[in-house]
Write a structure and sequence with these properties.
The protein folds into 2 domains: 196 residues, no CATH class; 216 residues, Nucleotidyltransferase, domain 5, CATH 3.30.420. The protein has 510 residues and is α/β, with parallel strands linked by helices. It has a 6-stranded mixed sheet. Strands 10-9-8-11-12 form a 5-stranded mixed sheet, with helices on both faces. InterPro entries: DUF2779. This is DUF2779 domain-containing protein.
Length: 510
């Protein structure tokens, strides 16, 4: 009796991505489960923070037909059969705006692909990878090359292939009119550099062999790193070597150019550098803090704060930039303010908190601006960190809403930048040379946890206020889950204001 052959598990686009990044990662993924797994993404990118992408694509291709995402072998065969019927329907293809989203194909080597968009050209099909971004990547080129290879094995004639990218000059006029949002990028000049057939042979050989050695420069990532490998625990890497330098004492704290000079002079870290070698006051302050292992504060910060008449307010904005603008008059990736949080100093000593968080009922900018004007009154300093961000958003709102313009512009002279005071008068070793809000909050008020964010969303956690707000706008999201996201955003705003107050108290402690 002949031996039963093991079924060949289909190769997919995700397999190619892993193999190109790290052959060991590819091998571990292929040996991790006995059955094939298929990506759960729709055409394009992650639906979080992308706006009404499906509506936008259909505006450019009103005759668009979407092939459902297959999960099982039977569903894949059904999707492939449906794709074939759609691609031979010449009558339908003559209609304006015809296209197929998620077209599915398979090759005789056991490769299966799901193509973002197939449309009709004068001399064959046009193939696009839809990216809600302004530029493509090497992985995008690899994916399109794989699609073309599999389509060629199905004797399909492709006229052109490329990317659909976001045109940032597009201004959304409203009413679902997204025609013009995308711009085409032709990949013909680079697709020929991808030997897909050789890659497929090498991938099959790799999965049949022993676990390969870790390639030099593999992007393994680390805790919290973007693109962190899902197989780090199974990879069998040797223990990580200790860091060569402690970031809290690194010479890079004083800037890369000066750090290079100091290294050339033989210094290993900032603790060994004599203060007279550092000419900038902020560098000497950082060096003193590093040498003594404790924060250094100059009295000038307290003197500057004492000149500010009360009552004080501590203010923080949150903004979001959608790839597909959801509100009329907005552009792709435009920074749209959706939340402000403010603590007001009171005579009783305990601060009074107020804030604004946009709902899901349209463009929030006018309500944001009007509520801000009402809450700020007409006097008292407004303390913010890296306040140019808040000032610029206020200017934009003033230009947008002329009737609110004078009141908004009157806020600008009152805004005080805590970052400038911190940079000129303070340094904490835990900042490790970083002046980001996250690093500063973690150094001066770690117990407030203002540098952290997490909120429940569809059985998992999101770790960004932007993601939480975008997710809360999804129409199909249950109201109670949307409210949990919104409450997490409100709590985050309260923590930010408290951390800003703690920072102010630190600067006044001299």
């Amino acid at each position: 009796m002949a031996a039963m052959l093991e079924p060949i598990i289909a190769l997919a686009e995700d397999d190619l991505r892993r193999w190109r990044a790290c052959v060991r990662r590819f091998w571990l993924q292929r040996h991790a489960a006995p059955e094939a797994t298929y990506p759960e993404t729709e055409p394009g990118v992650d639906r979080i923070v992308r706006g009404p992408a499906a509506t936008a694509l259909r505006a450019s291709y009103p005759g668009l037909v979407t092939v459902p995402t297959p999960r099982t072998d039977d569903e894949w065969q059904q999707a492939i059969d449906l794709t074939e019927r759609l691609l031979v329907d010449v009558r339908a293809q003559s209609e304006e705006g015809w296209g197929v989203a998620g077209a599915c194909f398979a090759s005789d080597e056991g490769v299966r692909v799901r193509v973002d968009l197939v449309t009709r050209g004068l001399q064959g099909f046009k193939v696009f990878r839809v990216r809600h971004a302004t530029a493509g990547s090497e992985a995008d080129v690899d994916a399109v090359a794989l699609w073309l290879y599999v389509m060629a094995r199905n004797t399909l004639r492709v006229q052109s292939a490329g990317l659909l990218l976001i045109d940032t000059s597009f201004v959304y006029p409203g009413l679902g009119c997204y025609a013009g949002l995308y711009r085409e990028m032709d990949l013909a000049p680079v697709l020929g550099t991808r030997p897909v057939g050789e890659w497929i042979v090498a991938m099959r050989q790799c999965e049949r062999g022993a676990m390969p050695a870790l390639p030099l420069g593999a992007p393994c990532g680390g805790p919290g790193a973007s693109g962190r490998c899902e197989h780090l625990a199974q990879c069998g890497l040797p223990p990580a070597e200790p860091a060569l330098a402690d970031a809290r004492t690194s010479l890079d704290i004083v800037g890369r150019e000066l750090a290079a000079e100091l290294r050339a002079e033989g210094y290993a870290d900032l603790r060994g550098v004599p203060l007279h070698r550092l000419t900038a006051a902020r560098h000497r302050r950082a060096a003193r803090a590093v040498k003594h292992g404790q924060p250094v504060l100059d009295p000038g910060a307290a003197a500057a704060l004492r000149t500010l008449p009360g009552p004080r307010r501590w203010l923080r904005f949150e903004t979001i930039g959608f790839a597909v603008p959801p509100w009329p008059g907005t552009q792709p990736y435009q920074g749209l303010p959706f939340q402000w949080s403010c603590d007001l100093e009171t005579a009783e000593g305990s601060p009074r908190h107020s804030g604004f968080l946009a709902g899901a009922d349209g463009d929030p900018r006018r309500a944001f601006a009007a509520s801000l004007v009402d809450a700020m009154d007409e006097e008292g300093p407004i303390l913010a960190y890296n306040a140019g961000f808040e000032r610029n958003r206020i200017r934009e709102l003033a230009l947008r809403f002329g009737d609110l313009g004078p009141a908004l512009l009157a806020l600008l002279p009152r805004v005080v930048d805590l970052f400038a005071l911190l940079r000129d008068h303070y340094y904490h070793p835990a900042m490790a040379g970083s002046w980001s809000l996250r690093s500063v909050f973690q150094a001066v008020a770690p117990e407030v946890r203002a540098h952290e964010f997490e909120a429940p969303y569809r059985g998992r956690l999101v770790h960004s206020p932007l993601q939480a707000y975008a997710a809360s706008l999804e129409r199909e999201l249950p109201p109670e889950e949307a409210e949990r996201l919104r409450e997490a955003l409100r709590a985050h705003g309260r923590r930010h204001c408290e951390a800003l107050r703690r920072l102010t108290a630190v600067l006044e402690a001299a």
